Amino acid sequence: MSEHLLEVKDLVKHFTLNGDFVSRVAGKTQTVKAVDGIDFYVRQGETLGLVGESGCGKSTTGRLITRLIEPTEGEIKLRGEDLLAFSPKRMRETRKDVQLVFQDPYASLNPRKTIMDILSRPLEVHNLAKTWHEKRERVLELLNLVGMGSEHIDRYPHEFSGGQRQRIAIARGLTVNPELMIGDEPVSALDVSIQAQILNLFRELQEKFSLTYLFIAHDLAVIRHISDRVAVMYVGKIVESGPVATIFSDPLHPYTKALLAAVPEADPEKPAPRLTLEGEVATPIDPPPGCRLQGRCPLATSICSEVSPELVSVDTDHQVACHNL
Amino acid sequence: MAEPVLEIDNLSVQFNLKRGVLRAIDQISFEVAKGETFGLVGESGSGKSVTARAIMRLIPSPPGEIASGTVRFQGRDLYEMSDKDIREIRGQNIAMVFQEPMNALNPVFTVGSQIGDALRTNLGLSKAEARERTAEMLQLVGIPSPSSRIDNYVHEFSGGMRQRVMLAMALSCDPTFLIADEPTTALDVTIQAVILELISSMIERFDMSLLFITHNLGVVAHACDKIGVMYASHLVEIGSKKEIFANPQHPYTVGLLRSIPRLDVQEKFLTPIDGTVCNMMDPPTGCKFNPRCAHTMDICRERIPKFKELAPGHFAACHLHEQPTV
Q: What CATH number should be reported for the domain holding residue A14?
């Protein structure tokens, strides 16, 4: 069994709404439980797909792991060491091991910098190249890696299409030779024909550099394609995780089942998409105790509104958080 | 064969910009029959939404201009009509649902007053009648406790509920034709499933025709009978849903279908379409797909291919099919 590169334990992130003095005194603050006690791990060299609907906390999870925001509680272990205990200096050095690719390549690249500037900056920050020639050479190598010609090096982001920009964003992640790449919806802003190119690029790079991916997406077909293992999130909790084939062919949690039944497959012979749950997505703002799916779930019993189900193993590597299995 | 309700013939729309002329749609022709659901698919910038807007006569002019062609609805040319007549067509005969309900609905009026306004203007109802009918419509599209929700503002609804409100507004004047422009794109997949089901039940109930615009091939596979595929302002293939998915004939359609990751099997690599969409200000000559196509021949760079009927009701515009051998 391969080593766990990343391990997350009881990770919690709460945001306070109406946190101003007057509201606090009046007791009118509310808590958004964006991430509410999640556990998962990512093995060296694999891809973990984190899937869920908008607002379920998947992007917050990605930001917590990179420490772009600080968690309320919990542990984030990289190669067995707790990132949260690192000194600022140590953390700065560690940042080169974990890189993030964002969703919107129109927002994540500085419009006033050339591609050379954008890609050489991480090299300067981490002292990986000294002279201009060294930097130039490395940037050209990176462009080549992501399938872009060297003629692009002195251009600005606005001169590129969405797919090309995403290639540049990926190249930026690669500059520092990371071990873990976190993709936060990296293909969801792209058209399908381009999306396929970028997904293939992720695969090629993974093989070439034995990268480990945490791939965050809402599109189940994308997750199915790219992941080795999958974790399904619903309103701040992981409800099910397991190997990709198991999750997609034998899902156990009612939410996972509902999510899969709702996907319209590009094949008219397949059953029409439908919703097997009642009502709408629950809110993470001061949620009631118990399972987050209560009130929508066809299996719900009285315990579901009292006790929040723990993620328990049902099979090797397959975990589900449900009282009624 | 049912009679066509909407006939688009050789329609071109261009925008005359400072930088030059942008052909947003170029000589497209198709028909939608009574009771038919027609899906228009294509990637961003292919001209799907401009087509919808051109049908509604909503192309801003200037800079927009209808460069050629006609749009006929129930036999009448929409571009020959007076402004008064077209206003009657909009809403009462053709209604439209947009992608972003938050942008399409007015944030400073309650949903009841907006839908009520449409009813009073189009159907001449009194205030009380309009309110009653609005509540009925909200009930019909599945908004719980409509009699109190009628006085809510748009921001007080969730994304899925907003889309229901839009649908209620679109259907309030009993249209015979519905245009849905990416109605589920901004929604989560579980809510999308509900809205798709709602749209198809409404189509049946009101006996409407539907023009469904989307980039999502999964959605058209379930929401439409007939599909038109657009690429770079051209319509490249039209056929029944079955034909398009089982027997696609245009290399772009084939490529598009192959690039979608599948839910049932995991392949190591996908088969994308090479290259990127052409710059619409400076498109290639001949077939617009030729720089990305695996079958490009000399003629593809010279002439725009014409539509050819390959099987009954199945058309493709590709030079491969103009040769006797393939």
A: 3.40.50.300
| A161 near B CB under 8 A | yes
Structural domain total, chain A: 1
Is B52 part of any domain? no
| Any A CB within 8 A of B272 CB | yes
List the B4-17 sheet strands across, edge first: B20-33, B4-17, B64-73, B76-77
Do the chains contact at B241 and A268, CB–CB below 8 Å? Answer: yes
Q: Considering its fold, how many domains does chain B have in total?
A: 1
Any chain B CB within 8 A of the CB of A192? Answer: yes
CB contact under 8 A, A274 and B193: yes
CB contact under 8 A, A194 and B272: yes
Neighbours of A116 (CB within 10 A): 18
Residue B92: strand, helix, or coil: helix
Does A151 lie at the interface with B, CB-CB under 8 angstroms? no
Full 3-state SS string of A221-259: HHHHHHCCEEEEEECCEEEEEEEHHHHHHCCCCHHHHHH
> What was the ipTM of the complex prediction?
0.86
Domain around A226: 4-97+178-320
Residue B129 to residue A240: CA distance in whole angstroms: 50
Digit-by-digit pLDDT tens for chain A (325 residues) are 458 999 999 999 999 988 788 888 888 888 899 999 999 999 999 999 999 998 899 999 999 999 999 999 999 999 999 999 999 999 999 999 999 999 888 899 999 999 999 999 999 999 998 899 999 999 999 999 999 989 999 999 999 988 999 999 999 999 999 999 999 999 998 899 899 999 999 999 999 999 999 999 999 999 999 999 999 999 999 999 999 999 999 999 999 999 999 999 989 888 899 988 888 888 888 888 999 999 899 998 999 999 999 999 998 899 999 998 8
Q: Which domain holds residue B285?
A: 225-326
Instruction: Scan residues 155-194 of B and list those with Cβ closer than 8 Å to A.
Output: 158, 160-161, 188-194
Cβ distance A280 to B158 less than 8 Å, yes or no, reads yes
- The verdict on residue B78 lying in a domain is no
Degrees, nearest 5: CA angle A161-A163-A166: 110
Between the CA atoms of A277, A223, A3 and A7, what dihedral angle is there, to the nearest 10 degrees?
-50
Helix ranges, chain B (H): 48-55, 83-92, 101-104, 111-123, 127-140, 146-149, 159-171, 189-206, 217-223, 241-246, 251-259, 298-302
B309 in any annotated domain: yes
- Residue A137 inside a domain? The answer is no
Let me know if residue A37 belongs to a domain: yes
Q: Scanning every residue of chain A, which has its alpha carbon at the shortest distance from the alpha carbon of B243?
A: A268
- CA–CA dist A266, A268 (Å, integer): 7
Query: Is B136 within 8 Å of chain A by CB?
Result: no
B233, part of any domain: yes
